[in-house]
Every structure is written in structure tokens, then in C-alpha cells.
Amino acid sequence: MRKRFLTYGLCLLTLFTASVTTAQVAEKSRLRIGEKPKVATSSNTTLSAYVANPNLPKEINYNKSLAVNVFYRQLLLSNRSAATTTPTAKNVMEGTSDDALYSNNKIHVSNIYPNPANASATLDYDIRDSNAKAEIILYDSFSRKIATYEMNDFDRKLRIDTQSLDNGFYMYQLVLDGKKAATKKLLVRHN
Which domain holds residue 130? Predict the structure, then answer.
């Protein structure tokens, strides 16, 4: 009987201590749940009324448009001729495009765009060697040859009519001097 009484008393003491500790923690809580927010009564409210550290500067100045102005100034004044050409055509001429189907010292060919295509698709290219013979072969999903397009060294673009094609995946392959150089997918999707 005495053991039960001691156990019961110990449990009550533990519960009382826990509730007192919880109450003390709740008083020190940063959340202040259940309290109404204190509103400044003065008509001239400053930033320091809301900031815990009143030693901070009361006014912060920054120039948000400086970075934007610098960017556009550099863009407009750096190279005026680059603004008149399209980025794709410029990259094809320079041979620096990361989005290239194939590039070497003889030829540079971009990927077909737009991909997926609706009515037509375009491919930019630059043949640097007049002796190079290049062509694009279009295959359907069953690897049947649909069309062959020759790439002339005096042209810069190849337009492929996709309006007559059914919706689905097609493969286009670059053949350079009779050898397969690169193959990629083209999705045709009519709206």
C-alpha cells in the first residue's frame, strides 16, 4: 500500500513540475500565441517601432534599377549589328551554337525548329567547303524513307513541309559525303 502511495505521489509531483515548466516556456515563447498584438498609438510610426534593435538605420537606400540599366546599356551599345540578325543565324555563321545537329570544319547544321512542328520545320546550315555534299533524309517511325532534301552551299536554310505528314515521330538524318553524320527526332503535331 505504501509503495502505491509513493508511486501515486511521485506521478503527481512529475505532472505538476511538467505543467509549471510548460507555463514558464509559454511565457518566454517568441510566438506569443493568444496575445493581442501591440499597436503603436503615435500617428508617426517609424521602422524602429517594429524592429527589435532600434540601433539599425531608419532609412535604407538602394538603387534597384541600376543592374537593369547596366544590362540593357551593354546589350544595346555593345554590338548594334548583332541586334539586327537573329540569334540562330548568327550562331550558325560563327559555328558556336550549343544547339547544333552537326558541326565540323566543312559544315555547321542546327537542329530543326520548331520541334514539335505544325505546318513546316526549318533547319539552318552553313556549308564552308564547296566540295562537301550534304543532304537531310526524313524517315517515319517504321524507318521508311519519306523524303530527301539536298543542302546547297549557296543557301542558309532548309524548309521542310510537315503539313502533309501525319501526327507522330519522325527521324531526320544528316548525310555528309555519303556517310551518316547525325540523326535526331522530329515530332509533327497538327493543331
Answer: 87-188
